[in-house]
Amino acid sequence: MAEGIVIALDAMGGDHAPEMVVRGAHIALKRFPHVHFQLFGDEGKIRPLLAKYKKLSRRATVHHTEEAVSGEAKPSQALRSGRRSSMRLAIDAVAEGKAHCVVSAGNTGALMAMSKVVLRTVPGIDRPAMASYFPTRRGESVMLDLGANVECDADNLVQFALLGDVFARTVLGLVQPVVGLLNVGSEELKGHDAVREAAARLRENSSPISFYGFVEGDDIGAGTVDVIVTDGFTGNIALKTAEGTVKLVIEFFRSAFRHSMLGRIGYLFARGALNRLRGRLDPRKYNGAVFLGLQGIAVKSHGGADALSFANAISVAVDMKANGFLDKIREDLQRLHAHGTSPKAQSAAV
Amino acid sequence: MAEGIVIALDAMGGDHAPEMVVRGAHIALKRFPHVHFQLFGDEGKIRPLLAKYKKLSRRATVHHTEEAVSGEAKPSQALRSGRRSSMRLAIDAVAEGKAHCVVSAGNTGALMAMSKVVLRTVPGIDRPAMASYFPTRRGESVMLDLGANVECDADNLVQFALLGDVFARTVLGLVQPVVGLLNVGSEELKGHDAVREAAARLRENSSPISFYGFVEGDDIGAGTVDVIVTDGFTGNIALKTAEGTVKLVIEFFRSAFRHSMLGRIGYLFARGALNRLRGRLDPRKYNGAVFLGLQGIAVKSHGGADALSFANAISVAVDMKANGFLDKIREDLQRLHAHGTSPKAQSAAV
Q1: What is the DSSP code (8-state) at residue B209?
Q2: CATH says A126-292 is which class?
Q3: Where does chain B show beta strands of DSSP type E?
Q4: Is the ipTM of this complex over 0.90?
Q5: A270 to B266: CB separation less than 8 angstroms, yes or no
Q6: What are B63's strand-pairing partners?
Q7: Parallel, antiparallel, or unpaired: how do β-strands A36-41 and A129-136 relate?
Q8: Angle formed by the axes of helices B261-281 and A232-258, nearest 10°
Q9: Chain A: residue nearest B138 by CA?
């Protein structure tokens, strides 16, 4: 189903680039044998790596550039002086219709800024959001924004709800995802103006979204809803808090096992079970934060990603393209418009 | 060291009140045999429970009232019509100097509102904050605000830093606690105006606080700093996200063990180790959110608390009184004043 999909890869982005990018593409090609790759970066480094993978060599083109965006570059700096960088050229390929998606493990701020300027937002969406999915007790959920917008108003949150809804349909394959708004309590009066106003608008009958209402921090892991909507400040902190807590609990488990002879014996028996658990929580499985709301598909892989992790980020991009993410966003915005509702505040109606 | 300390207890607050309140006081009395309790609530219910514990009976007085604040009451409603409630009378006892601390497992919003109005804030502190401590990889840390103030400016955050610092000294026994400000990145330019301005003020040489700088969500579990300062919206969500994640990981562990015969055998051997782990993460150990910044000590226990849990909330109150929390806050504010710095923005100097 991924027939004819072209993925532009920033071959120089990430701690282990370009090696892991090339090997990541090789792994992804096993999953999607009909995908085509465009590798942007230092040809002298990419070619020898590519030579190791015959199949990939046949389905990849190399686009040489000597420039790359450094991990320390500020977004404004990358925008100004990174016009010939591997990251920028990969984004340009999508803007020019030569590729369908761009995937990079490079500088997050630079990727966000460049994608915003080059790909532009879909009409009806004011600001793109960063989204990711993660395991919960009931399956998988999506959360956005994860840090692209530190301050958000009710318009932004309503638009994020729409973007998250379509992402859950296209990437998680849910028919009618349930959307919740992150808050400090479930009662209507809780929280600040932006969340209260966004909730009021999402509760309207004309809204195409299946809105659950407010959810709290512990609903994230519980999987109470499929899509969690929040501002980029809160979302970033919630996501990183969850990651840090997983590490903390696993560390405590380890020291509990090590602490006694019986614990060590138990560990030997339970090793298989524990490895399965590690697989279930493996952050590499959930690699790939997506910039939603742009007129193009842009996926950000973790900077420290290995090849498997990078392949998963590529998979997210392929899923979005294959399942028509952009078309569905446009359709939904049109349907909203036809219904006389808009994801923007209807100040005229007040 | 808890000689002569008087604790006012809202005997009617919490899902299992008054039984767990009385039994909680009994447990706490074993730890602090010189403490005295004042139990506010329905005498007809409290007396028969108290009769079971001889020692406690000798060190407790009962103050009858038929009214109690319901769990559903709004703060404004509780303030207006709860003047004869067990919660209000317990707070009044502190305000009138008859008790040193108040502990309640009742309605959080009502307790916060009543404490604020009755006990008032310490001069130099604009708004009280809710704080709690929790386990990390390096020991224990304190976080505030956990939900008392949904929106906070730089003044509030700087004041919270001061309150958290003194709490870490008095309750966690740290000599020079390190304070961090929760943000979406560690660079100076990250985040919104309030966190950036608060950080600039905490970095000043005249600040008595050992300021680490910005910390991110994963630093909470890592124990990077001793005190984490944030607004009540973010803090509430971060704390509940961490709680939900602990539940998620434990649930995953359980199902991993159950999944195979070897896993089940391993579990039998490792049971002791796992119980120790559960003890280490036991939320009952960390029961007791504290309202800091008031002219009195007010501790909120979880509504679903059992007796052990409630005894831990009492312990937090005793520690704060015994270690002179209120005096230290006043001293620190005076010292700041003498240095010509103030926890408020120095608009005159700009």
Answers
A1: S
A2: alpha beta
A3: 6-10, 36-41, 60-64, 101-104, 129-136, 139-144, 178-182, 210-215, 227-229, 289-292, 297-300
A4: no
A5: yes
A6: B40
A7: unpaired
A8: 110
A9: A248
> In this predicted model, what pLDDT tens digit does every residue of A50-78 receive, in sequence order?
999 999 999 999 999 999 999 889 999 99
Cite the residue boundaries of each domain of chain B with CATH code 3.40.718.10. 1-122+293-323, 126-292
Residue A133 distance to chain B (closest CA, Å):
15
Q: How far apart are CA B100 and CA B188, in angstroms?
A: 41
Whether the Cβ atoms of residue B301 and residue B156 lie closer than 8 Å to each other: no
Sheet of B36-41, strand order:
B60-64, B36-41, B6-10, B101-104, B297-300, B289-292, B129-136, B139-144, B227-229, B178-182, B210-215
- Nearest CB partner across the interface for B221, out of A219, A248, A260: A248
Residue A67 CA: distances (Å) to CA of A94, A95, A204, B157, B195 = 19, 19, 50, 42, 35
Q: Angle, to 10 degrees, between the axis of helix B19-31 and the axis of helix B43-50? A: 40
pTM of structure:
0.89
Measured in whole angstroms, the distance separating CA B347 from the mean position of its chain's CA atoms is: 32
| Chain B neighbors of A259, CB-CB under 8 A | 273, 276
Rounded Cα distance between B24 and B315, Å, is 10
Cis peptide before A226 (omega within 30 of 0): no
Q: Was domain A1-122+293-323 assigned CATH 1.10.3720.10?
A: no
User: B178: which 2 tokens?
Assistant: 């390190």
| Per-residue pLDDT reduced to its tens digit, A183-205 | 998 888 889 999 999 999 999 87
Q: Which residue in the set B151, B238, B246 is minimally distant from A249, CB to CB?
A: B246
Phi, psi of A139 (to 5 degrees): 135, -125
What's the DSSP call for residue B349? Answer: G
